[in-house]
Amino acid sequence: xxxxxxxxxxxxxxxxxxxxxxxxxxxxxxxxxxxxxxxxxxxxxxxxxxxxxxxxxxxxxxxxxxxxxxxxxxxxxxxxxxxxxxxxxxxxxxxxxxxxxxxxxxxxxxxxxxxxxxxxxxxxxxxxxxxxxxxxxxxxxxxxxxxxxxxxxxxxxxxxxxxxxxxxxxxxxxxxxxxxxxxxxxxxxxxxxxxxxxxxxxxxxxxxxxxxxxxxxxxxxxxxxxxxxxxxxxxxxxxxxxxxxxxxxxxxxxxxxxxxxxxxxxxxxxxxxxxxxxxxxxxxxxxxxxxxxxxxxxxxxxxxxxxxxxxxxxxxxxxxxxxxxxxxxxxxxxxxxxxxxxxxxxxxxxxxxxxxxxxxxxxxxxxxxxxxxxxxxxxxxxxxxxxxxxxxxxxxxxxxxxxxxxxxxxxxxxxxxxxxxxxxx
Length: 425
Known about the structure:
Layout: E1 51-55, E2 61-65, E3 77-81, E4 86-94, H1 96-104, E5 117-120, H2 123-134, H3 136-149, E6 155-161, E7 167-173, H4 181-191, E8 194-199, H5 202-209, H6 220-223, H7 233-238, H8 245-248, H9 263-270, E9 287-293, E10 298-303, E11 311-314, H10 315-326, H11 345-350, H12 369-378
Parallel strand pairs: 7-8
Antiparallel strand pairs: 1-2, 1-4, 3-4, 3-5, 6-7, 9-10, 10-11
Helix pairs in contact: 3-4
């Protein structure tokens, strides 16, 4: 979802608004909510909800009350109440959807307890706010140098100025408890402002900074995901994924949140499957499970004496064998429970006529047109058939005469004939 200022230019290249998170239309910001009630009028007896959602840097949002009954719309820059001074943010949602968002985030619907919006931001407020935002990169670099010099095991991932530039909030991550009292004193002396330190988790850090995931899309945590549930390696085991930490870890270094998306579907499908440690008792000996396919509902078993030969069985057949074993009986062999797979020959032949399913269809180089042209030039013209053009007007091609006249009309001497004696001259 992009704003109008991010449209492509005349040459087809994207222009980009380059507002660094202060897009006026709120179309290319993080965790954007579409106001689908904006064009609908409320009933006559209903008063509009006076709560407003305001967004600050990197998706940080808070709810405020519009006590002054200002005419606000999405994208307006407002000055809001803070603990000391005021802050500047962008309106992202108004009306009844704010009530829905507050219920979702388990906020109290009593707007009297919410901080208030002072006014729409003036040009002076916006200038101070933008000047403070421009200094954030340099201050972050200097603060990291100070933390390294003090020997603190922490990473300052992001900083945020308050709208009136009176306070700086430092967001950091650390694996252990950090004593940053000396750091706060030195930061206050260096930057001459009030300092606040906030520790965030590794997932929250990735959500604030954003990025592109291995799927090629923006990170879920920075676009729509708000609650971070714990992810364990058992989620990968249930989905039969290889336990490779480089593939399972996301930008934050933790397990990817998307491992939980389809976990419930896998758990429901696995309820029909028996446990993989169950052995099937046969006359040939016990058989153990080697592999399972959740999508096709298949299991592969092999005898203990012959582990190289796997036998494909459906889950229903495996449960049938287990039921027989529970009664104290053994089955003869696993082969008798196999089901022959019917293959439609006509469908098999014509399913891949073009070769679009072949993985190596692009590996063979194309035949050059030069060879075809040379072959056409060197190809000899065949003589026209006699009578083909008979009865037709125009010049008919003459047939090629292979009986060429010899230059010398003298007959060739025959070696077999006897020659008489030569006469004297």
